[in-house]
Write a structure and sequence with these properties.
Layout: E1 5-9, H1 13-25, E2 29-33, H2 36-44, E3 52-56, H3 64-72, E4 82-86, H4 91-100, E5 104-107, H5 112-138, E6 148-153, H6 156-167, H7 173-192, H8 197-205, H9 209-217, E7 227-233, E8 237-243, H10 269-277, E9 280-284, E10 289-295
Parallel strand pairs: 1-2, 1-3, 3-4, 4-5
Antiparallel strand pairs: 6-7, 7-8, 8-10, 9-10
Length: about 300
C-alpha cells in the first residue's frame, strides 16, 4: 500500500517542519505549502492526489477558512478530508469551520501522538470512501428495480456490503452510500455491541477499534444479535428503516455538528448522513430504530 499523501498548509516554518517530521516518521508523504494562496495554486493546477489536507486557520494572503470553502466548492477536491489547525477554540468559530466542511480540528500546540492519530483517521476515512465509490460503480444495475426487501446481518463487514448494494438502487449512489454505511455501522457497534461514544474515541486514538469489535462480536451475549433493515420503494421516495437490538442512545445529541466534539476522532457520522445522504433522517423511541428517506426523481 502506498504511503498516504498529505498537503500541509502552514505559514510558520518551524511549526511546519516539526509537523512534517512527525508525519514522515509515522509513514506519511507530506507536501508543504507556505500559505493558503500557494496551496490553492497547487490544487487548481491539477495536483489533487492528496488523501488529507492539514490546514492552518490564520495565514496571510488566503486564510484557512477561505481556502476550506474553496476546496469544498470544487468537485475534484470536496471529498478530501480537511483538518483545521487552530488556537481559536470558541464555539462560534468552530461551528463555522464545521459548517464549511472541516472534518477534524487540532488545537495548537498539539501532542504529536494526537496529530498522528487525527491524520491517520482522516486518511483512513478518505481511502474507505474511495473504496466505497469503486464498489458502487461496479454494482449491478438490475437491482434498481428492487421494490422492497428485509435484510438481517450481524457484522460490520456484512453491513458495509449491504450498504454498497442498496446504494446502487438509490438515485444518487455516491451520495447515499456514506449515510447508509454510517447508519449500518452504528447499528452494529453502538447498538448491538454497546460501544459508547467515549469508548470509541479511546479505541480510535489507540488504534484498537477493530480488535474490540472482534472481541465483542464473540461474546456470548452478542452472538445472536442482528440488525434488521427494511427497504421500501414508494411512488415518491425510498424509505429505509434500520433497527438494532441494543439499548439505544441519546440520538438528539448527534443530529447536528456540535463544536464540543470538533476535536474528537468520531461523532460526525449521523450529522453528515442527515445533511448529505438523506432527505429526512428520524430516530424513533430510545434510538435503536432510525428511518431514512430519499426522494425519487419525477418520472
Amino acid at each position: 500500500m502506498t504511503r498516504p499523501r498529505v498537503l500541509l498548509v502552514e505559514d510558520e516554518e518551524i511549526i511546519a517542519l516539526v509537523i512534517q517530521d512527525n508525519l514522515i516518521d509515522a509513514g506519511f508523504d507530506v507536501v508543504l505549502a507556505g500559505d493558503g494562496q500557494e496551496a490553492w495554486e497547487r490544487l487548481v493546477a491539477g495536483d489533487h492526489a492528496f488523501e488529507t489536507i492539514l490546514l492552518d486557520w490564520e495565514m496571510p494572503r488566503l486564510d484557512g477558512m477561505q481556502l476550506l470553502r474553496q476546496i469544498k466548492a470544487m468537485p475534484e477536491l470536496m471529498d478530501i478530508p480537511v483538518i483545521m489547525e487552530t488556537a481559536v477554540t470558541d464555539p462560534a468559530s468552530i461551528q463555522e469551520g464545521l459548517n464549511a466542511g472541516a472534518h477534524y480540528y487540532l488545537t495548537k500546540p498539539f501532542d504529536p501522538k494526537v496529530l498522528i492519530s487525527v491524520v491517520r483517521a482522516a486518511t483512513a476515512q478518505f481511502r474507505e470512501h474511495r473504496q466505497m465509490l469503486d464498489r458502487v460503480r461496479l454494482a449491478h444495475r438490475p437491482f434498481e428495480h428492487l421494490e422492497s426487501g428485509i435484510f438481517r446481518f450481524r457484522s460490520i463487514e456484512d453491513g458495509c456490503l449491504l450498504a454498497d448494494f442498496l446504494a446502487a438502487v438509490c438515485p444518487e449512489p455516491e451520495t447515499a452510500i456514506l449515510g447508509l454505511r454510517e447508519l449500518l455501522i452504528n447499528a452494529v457497534e453502538h447498538g448491538n455491541l454497546g460501544i459508547s461514544y467515549a469508548e470509541k474515541s479511546h479505541l480510535l486514538f489507540n488504534d484498537t477499534w477493530h480488535e474490540e469489535i472482534d472481541r465483542r462480536m464473540n461474546l456470548d451475549e452478542n452472538r445472536d444479535k442482528r440488525v434488521r433493515l427494511h427497504f421500501e420503494r414508494r411512488p415518491t421516495q425510498m424509505v429505509i428503516t434500520i433497527t438494532d437490538e441494543g439499548q439505544g442512545f441519546e440520538w438528539r445529541d448527534y443530529l447536528d455538528f456540535d463544536p464540543k466534539r470538533a476535536f474528537d476522532l468520531n461523532g460526525r457520522g449521523i450529522a453528515l448522513a442527515r445533511v448529505k445522504s438523506f432527505d429526512t433522517l428520524e430516530y424513533q423511541g430510545n434510538g435503536n430504530s432510525v428511518v431514512a428517506t430519499i426522494r425519487l426523481p419525477s418520472p
